[in-house]
Amino acid sequence: MTNVLAYLRGPWAIAVYTWREGMRKKTLVGFLILSLLVIFGSNFITAFLFESGGSEGPTSDVDTKLIKDICITAIAIFGILITIFISASVVPTEVENKVIYTVLSKPVRRFQYLLGKFVGVQLIVLLNLCLMGILFFFALYFKERVWPTLLLWSLLVTYFEFLIVSAFTFAISCTASSAVLPTISGLFIYITGYLSEYLKDTAERAGQTTQVLDALIGKIAYGLYLVLPNLKAFSRVEKQIVYAQPNDPVQAELIPQLILLSVVYCFAGYVLAYWIFRRREL
Amino acid sequence: MSAVIETESLTKVYEGALKGQDVHALKGVSLTMNRGEIFAYLGPNGSGKTTTIKLLLGLIFPTSGKLRILGKTDVNAAAVKRNIGYLPEGAYYPEFLEGEEVLRFYGQLYGMGGRVLESRISEVLETVGLSHARKRLVRGYSKGMRQRIGLAQALLSDPQILILDEPTTGLDPIARKEIRDILVNLRDRGKTLFVSSHELLEIEMISNRVGILFEGELKVLGTIDELLTDRDVTLEIEHLGSDKLEQFRNAGVAVEDTVENRYLLRVPSNMSVFAALDMCRQLDARLVSVRPRRETLEELFVRVVGAAGKAKENVQ
Hints:
The structure holds two protein chains of two kinds. Chain A has helices at 2-22, 26-52, 60-96, 99-104, 110-144, 150-173, 180-205, 212-227, 231-242, 254-277.
């Protein structure tokens, strides 16, 4: 047990250091402040819109829906930007400022280093998501005067959606010496993840002609559909939870499946990162 | 003496994107470093010093050749890494941390913790003379203090081997002297120091053995005494007319330097000092001083690198 703790002490120290350093990055703080302002302001925005609408203004339900729309969009946009930015930059920054030399010259294996960095990134993502979620939580509470506990499930699913993007962005960042390419790749992964259902449509429509190429494209599309993460599935569940009424049942059977799927992709992303990084010349 | 670092025909080629663009950073370097010595690794920029250091640390991988540290070929093994302290050139230390927090972070990477780590932090801060600033943020550290905290993190595990890349560059004379004293003290405690530097005067003062690298090839390797064998005598004389100076030149005495009426004459090794003094007497020159002189490391470096450069030009 003591040996295990000593073995994990290095990665944990790296994770805490990454978290402390990451929370000081100006870009990240900027995104966070913007998102908090938008979420905090959602109540005021709805109040302003409906007051200007006069006596024909929408009902309280529509009012609440608008707050939810604003907050969900803010969390989705700023959350993923923070996730991609931080996942893309932690390793290249250390290569650039040579901290990695002093770290890897200590008895820290490369997989331990990557584990520490990745856990550090997740601490940052979780903290940011929690801050945004808490504000969203209170924005809804002040509107409805009911604790929106279902929101916690939505935030959990959102985190596991971010985890997939984070893992693959992190893996790509292990090839790069600057954060630009991994950031672009992270955005690409996110967009592709949302479009992966179209691949299924393509596969289903293929084979309608007898041409070989048509069938081949169908098979490739289906293969990609199986391999690529389907982020829309996460988003769908998040929205179902958020827009459900307080007494509506949570789609409990879907959440563990999505979490498991996310953990599998995360593991694949970490293995890919290690495979890239293990022989990288620094 | 027992060898702590051994390299045998160590070669590193950085592959280029296209054929013919490969960079041969290290060409068959064979070295041995012994316990309790300061080994100075010298060479012009781009000669392969940093490549060698990165190979020793397992940050890059050799193309061919053998590398053994403390008898082990796996340089990334924990037993090896625990016994290596590394100070990189111009490294960044997290500015938002206090001095002791930086060391706590690095200590945890060694698997250290609790009282053992805290007492070790105090010890190394004392060694590098930074105890007074342990609670200060690194942001407020001067360049010399940053170098000291770098040295402190390298010393944390009390390693047998210290690899130091430009440890005194950019420091003021007092800080240099202090760092130099620390290095000598470490050597006297039995540590092996591998120092890469351009500060040749300092290196000459503290190192036992020297290796000079040029374009990836080890041109010179030996102890200071073995390498700096060229010894002669310098005469400092005053009030010498140009015709008399010419007579000295004709006798093979080189005029090294001139400051107003004072001349520095270098008597070649094949000429007797007494013969030179007789000439002074005959020419009625006023003798200020007679100094035995040994070739400096800087002169050796310039000679070796210059010769290697010329040889390369001739081949081309």
